[in-house]
Design brief:
354 residues; alpha/beta; Rossmann fold; 2 domains; 7-stranded parallel sheet; 5-stranded parallel sheet; 16 strands; 38% helix; 18% strand
Length: 354
């Protein structure tokens, strides 16, 4: 279902999607109220939902859409403004699954290959997949690997031995579904944090500053959008700014660059992890949360080769098990955990208890 008050935009989005043999437009609506009424008559797997509309805006419509169609995936269409960035993050908190950055003018959407590709990729990723029940790893913590070099968790994933040395930095990578996952994890670890926390979340400019403010407000940690030349401080959280890779040098100072995209992303998790390994070696603890693609896989391999550790979110609690699935299937993790357990698992490591 495509929901936008502009008939022209509804037409552009619908034509882009319905050209694909595996995607069907089942309905379109000019506002949130009409969308809620329509989804009761015509079930949809994915709703592409605009933010600003008359009668009922997108943010108001989200809980009503989810009530009418539990399990529907909502893809917010947002323009790059501070106001819409805040509304988009509020929408994710209200139950939207992901967001799509659309051009601010209709004429900019015509022939925009990058917009069309992102639209298709996200709709396909959020669409129906083979049915699966809760995995065994979602019902209990991953196996304890502290006494053996390798083991298997209950789902058959190969696990590595947990690190013996306490970490000196916590690095987190995330994408689709990441903002809410980050908030839950950081709220869970926000007691006596004695290491710096660096985060690469796939987001455009403006959004990352607002995400950092949300982390600070909800977790109580000193969280900021990273700036060039910032020194890493224990107990502080640094979010890579949109459109910049974030790295750390030998004297623990942040650097930002607009080098080539890696894994189609900027910021990318891999350059952050590579730089951390060069500085902290075996003292890097990495968490890979929900997200599509495999960004972070190469960086996690470097972390493991240096003697560090990786924890991944499990499939059952991930919006998309692309990034965490890639590192889990590669046998790089010491634990693959439900989202609710990750913060608790991290707490003794980042507080100096281990």
């Amino acid at each position: 279902m495509v929901v936008d008050d502009s008939a022209v935009i509804r037409g552009l989005v619908s034509r882009t999607l319905e050209q694909e043999p595996d995607i069907e437009i089942v309905a379109s609506a000019p506002d949130g109220r009409a969308a809620v009424a329509a989804i009761g008559r015509t079930p949809a797997d994915v709703v592409v939902l605009d933010i600003e509309m008359p009668v009922m805006d997108g943010l108001t419509a989200i809980p009503l859409l989810l009530q009418a169609a539990p399990g529907v995936r909502i893809l917010m269409a947002s323009t790059l403004t501070a106001k819409n960035a805040q509304i988009t993050l509020d929408a994710l908190a209200a139950g939207a699954t992901d967001f799509l950055l659309k051009p601010s003018a209709v004429r900019e959407m015509l022939g925009t290959a990058s917009f069309n590709q992102e639209l298709l990729t996200k709709v396909r990723e959020l669409g129906p997949r083979p049915a699966r029940g809760p995995t065994k790893t979602s019902r209990k913590p991953a196996a304890d690997t502290s006494s053996s070099p390798a083991a298997q968790d209950a789902a058959g994933l190969s696990l590595r031995q947990a690190p013996m040395l306490p970490p000196e930095v916590l690095a987190i990578g995330s994408s689709t579904g990441g903002p809410q996952a980050l908030l839950q994890v950081l709220t869970g670890v926000a007691k006596n944090v004695r290491v710096p926390i660096v985060i690469t979340q796939h987001m455009p400019p403006t959004f990352t500053a607002i995400l950092a403010a949300q982390i600070k407000r909800q977790s109580g940690l000193a969280a900021v959008e990273a700036q060039e030349g910032m020194p890493l401080e224990p107990g502080h959280v640094y979010v890579a700014p949109g459109d910049f890779h974030m790295t750390v040098d030998a004297v623990h100072v942040i650097h930002l660059n607009q080098g080539p995209r890696e894994n189609f992303c900027r910021p990318s998790v891999d350059p952050m992890l590579r730089s951390l390994v060069g500085v902290y070696r075996s003292r890097v603890l990495t968490v890979i949360l929900t997200g599509m693609g495999h960004d972070g896989l190469a960086g996690c391999k470097a972390v493991i080769e240096a003697g560090g550790a990786v924890i991944a979110q499990d499939e059952a609690t991930s919006v998309v098990w692309g990034m965490p699935g890639a590192v889990a299937k590669a046998g790089l993790c010491s634990a693959v955990l439900p989202l609710a357990e990750i913060g608790l698992r991290l707490r003794p490591y980042v507080s100096g208890e281990i």
